[in-house]
């Protein structure tokens, strides 16, 4: 930002005030028109009921405030030559942001049929919240947007994510006062403790207090101003207040606040970048208090509307049927004096556009809001550099995530100059065995540092905050603006962001259908510290259900991987980091795990997604298998292979096939998921009529749900987590949930025809071991020696 922080700013001339007001009135007119009109956009004739939409959908209450912010951001960008992005937090501000995009021309450039004339205005109005049109929220369809307004709480964390590693970018963030009451938003105020004034851009929060939510007052709007200031200063911000309902006065106050904020931001960045200042700065925040539904009907049917919760949605709800409502609507629209704002062809007049920036500096045209345009390929090194040697299956053990950490360290090092990769997680990087990354980057931190602290770095790109919401929001903002990242989390607690990932998946699904939206880097989750190895944390940390949640979502956008060892984890992670427009969920353990496949075998197996491990079974190729032992996940894989070894010892005549599944969507039919298998392929792998005993990492019914249409579903028996957990030994967890090797052998005996009688003694021996296990762990506190010391000797 090229402005002297000492300059005197914020004084509007009368001419500037007049043109800013013209732009604001035009945006208000267009916002009202989108909510109500389907014809007669310029009011060239008296308004009639048939000009009004039969279903009135949309939200007026927040729109005039957003229009004010958009107008003044335009002025700031144009006057200072800024590169800026705005995150529109109030979820129902769609009419305002679309209106401004149309005024500045970015909307017509994106959608050429919505021209900047009367015909285009009519199309703009008709399409809003109309079948076949556009949503009522700020959505992927809206030029300049990176934030879906359908759910509240994420605006500020998205804004900070966009600012990270974007040193020349100003990210304005409008926060609705309803949104400000949410937990994710409350936590995200702390993001300023992670914003590096040297390498990152700036975030300018604009807290818009219009007083009400849908039907209730908002907490922050009712706080006395000194108390609110104390709160914001406690978060590390210096508040600038803009309050009023007189447009002329508010324009002058808003311009002054914008200029003062910009000057302070320049001062902070100059001190850090040129003078070497290291103290954590106090960043500005604008507190904007204007009436809800400002400039709309003051009263409807004898009840106050403007400045109350009644202005939230559609202030005049019976326009087609109530002549008085129709009259009020026409008066409301004409109060903006549209003939002063649009010429006879419907184009905005020059005064309206006086504040609008040029080209890519327009908020609707910034490439930062279409991050795929800025995306570069990650410098991913060859996997062989990190692969663990596997001379024979199951002879060695490694911690898979520790192996992955070495790869991530080099990715972090390879992006040190370009700064477009970040690792985020809630205080768990080292706990999840990824601490190798600290060799290339420390943990971002702008607050105080003590001698006892480790790996804290004012310029770091490892992000840790004990708020999964904030981690998710940061990474989404980072990805949506054209960068790469990975979110590492304990498996049980990633559920905290269930609702957030819903919105991101919906964003990706819609974006895929918009040819002007360039693909972005995938949102990658690494879920570790998983359900089967919570030895000291116990039941509270045991929940593998995030996979179920993800697989309910759009098949085109979601992928779930359960690599069984270190090399398969490397292969899956490499694929995920290279992919675009997906949400990839990788579930992998951090505890020592057997190495089953060489790197070459791992790549091939991961490419297939599911396959037969012929070295583990007892098929001889002369007949069909008697039973299929299937597995997905690292612990289930170990238990299946141990069960296969027991069957080889005790029932050598039994033909056993072992199938491992890495890509869980492979179980779906091909017509339901792009990775799904056709029926012939599925039957060839699992057989159409033989018993299948499936050991699965998570809740068993997910496998049944994925495979319910398969021919052999009636022969499918799944073992998995049954919501039975505690602080106990590793093997006791699988025993408690009937996923252990001895239980699997018993399942085979129970389900292969003829074995129940012929192998009754074997089954009894398996049951006896389980009983002995219970006694042993209670006496010794550790697992049976034959379990603890087991290794594959196939």
Automatic annotation (TrEMBL):
Pfam families: XFP, XFP_C, XFP_N. Its EC number is 4.1.2.-. Coiled coil: none annotated. The keyword Translocase does not apply. The keyword Lyase applies. Residues 13-373 form the Xylulose 5-phosphate/Fructose 6-phosphate phosphoketolase N-terminal domain. This is Probable phosphoketolase. Keywords: Lyase, Thiamine pyrophosphate. InterPro entries: Phosphoketolase, THDP-binding, Transketo_C/PFOR_II, Xul5P/Fru6P_PKetolase, Xul5P/Fru6P_PKetolase_C, Xul5P/Fru6P_PKetolase_CS, Xul5P/Fru6P_PKetolase_N, Xul5P/Fru6P_PKetolase_ThDP_BS.
């Amino acid at each position: 930002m090229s402005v002297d922080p000492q300059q005197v700013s914020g004084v509007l001339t009368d001419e500037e005030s007049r043109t800013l007001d013209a732009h604001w009135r035009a945006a208000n007119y267009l916002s009202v028109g989108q909510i109500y009109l389907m014809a007669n956009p310029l009011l060239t004739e008296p308004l009639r009921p048939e000009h009004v939409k039969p279903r009135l959908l949309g939200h007026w209450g927040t729109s005039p405030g957003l229009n004010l912010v958009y107008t003044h951001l335009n002025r700031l960008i144009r006057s200072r030559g800024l590169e800026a992005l705005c995150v529109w937090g109030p979820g129902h501000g769609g009419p305002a942001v679309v209106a401004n995009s149309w005024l500045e021309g970015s909307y017509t450039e994106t959608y050429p049929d919505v021209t900047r004339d009367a015909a285009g205005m009519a199309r703009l109005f008709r399409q809003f919240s109309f079948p076949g049109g556009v949503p009522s929220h700020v959505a992927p369809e809206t030029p300049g947007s990176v934030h879906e307004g359908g759910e509240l709480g994420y605006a500020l964390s998205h804004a900070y994510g966009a600012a990270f590693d974007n040193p020349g970018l100003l990210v304005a963030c409008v926060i609705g006062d309803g949104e400000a009451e949410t937990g994710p938003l409350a936590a995200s105020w702390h993001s300023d403790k992670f914003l590096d004034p040297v390498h990152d851009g700036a975030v300018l929060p604009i807290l818009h207090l219009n007083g009400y939510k849908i039907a209730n007052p908002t907490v922050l709007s009712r706080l006395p101003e000194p108390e609110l200031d104390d709160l914001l200063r406690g978060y590390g911000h210096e508040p600038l207040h803009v309050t009023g309902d007189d447009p002329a006065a508010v324009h002058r106050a808003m311009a002054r606040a914008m200029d003062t904020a910009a000057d302070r931001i320049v001062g902070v960045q100059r001190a850090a970048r040129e003078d070497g200042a290291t103290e954590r700065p106090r960043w500005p925040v604008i507190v904007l208090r204007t009436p809800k539904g400002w400039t709309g009907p003051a009263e409807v049917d004898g009840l106050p509307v403007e400045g109350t919760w009644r202005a939230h949605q559609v202030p005049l709800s019976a326009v087609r049927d109530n002549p008085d409502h129709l009259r009020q609507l026409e008066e409301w629209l004409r109060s903006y004096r549209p003939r002063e704002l649009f010429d006879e062809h419907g184009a905005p007049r020059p005064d309206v556009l006086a504040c609008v920036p040029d080209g890519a500096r327009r908020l609707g045209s910034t490439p930062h809001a279409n991050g795929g345009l800025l995306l570069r390929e990650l410098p991913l090194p060859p996997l062989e550099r990190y692969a663990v040697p596997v001379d024979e299956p199951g002879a060695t053990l490694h911690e898979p995530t520790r192996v992955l950490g070495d790869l991530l360290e080099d990715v972090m090092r390879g992006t040190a100059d370009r700064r477009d990769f970040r690792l985020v997680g809630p205080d768990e990087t080292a706990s999840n065995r990824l601490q190798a990354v600290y060799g290339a980057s420390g943990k971002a931190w702008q607050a105080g540092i003590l001698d006892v602290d480790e790996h804290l770095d004012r310029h770091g790109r490892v992000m840790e905050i004990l708020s999964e919401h904030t981690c998710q929001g940061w990474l989404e903002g980072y990805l949506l603006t054209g960068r790469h990242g990975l979110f590492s989390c304990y498996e049980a607690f990633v559920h905290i962001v269930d609702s957030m990932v819903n919105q991101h998946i919906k964003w990706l699904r819609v974006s895929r259908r918009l040819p002007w939206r360039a693909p972005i880097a995938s949102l990658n989750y690494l879920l570790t510290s998983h359900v089967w190895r919570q030895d000291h944390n116990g039941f509270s940390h045991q929940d593998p259900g995030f996979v179920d949640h993800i697989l309910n979502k759009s098949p085109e956008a979601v992928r779930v991987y359960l690599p069984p060892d270190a090399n398969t984890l490397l292969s899956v992670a490499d694929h995920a980091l290279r992919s675009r427009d997906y949400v990839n969920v990788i579930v992998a353990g951090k505890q020592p795990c057997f190495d089953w496949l060489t790197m070459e075998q791992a790549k091939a197996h991961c490419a297939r997604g599911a396959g037969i491990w012929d070295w583990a079974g007892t098929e001889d190729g002369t007949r069909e298998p008697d039973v299929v032992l299937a597995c997905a996940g690292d612990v289930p894989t170990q238990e299946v292979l141990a069960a296969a070894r027991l069957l080889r010892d005790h029932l050598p005549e039994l033909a056993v096939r072992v199938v491992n599944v890495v890509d869980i969507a492979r179980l779906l039919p091909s017509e339901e998921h792009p990775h799904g298998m056709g029926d012939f392929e599925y039957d060839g792998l699992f057989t159409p009529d033989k018993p299948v005993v499936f050991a699965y990492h998570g809740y068993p019914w997910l496998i049944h749900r994925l495979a319910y249409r398969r021919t052999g579903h009636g022969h499918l028996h799944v073992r998995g987590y049954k919501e039975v957990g505690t602080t106990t030994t590793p093997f006791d967890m699988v025993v408690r949930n009937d996923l252990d090797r001895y239980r699997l052998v018993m399942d085979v005996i129970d389900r292969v025809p003829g074995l129940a009688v012929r192998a009754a003694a074997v089954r009894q021996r398996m049951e006896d071991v389980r009983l002995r296990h219970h006694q042993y762990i209670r006496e010794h506190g550790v697992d049976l020696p034959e379990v603890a010391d087991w290794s594959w000797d196939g």
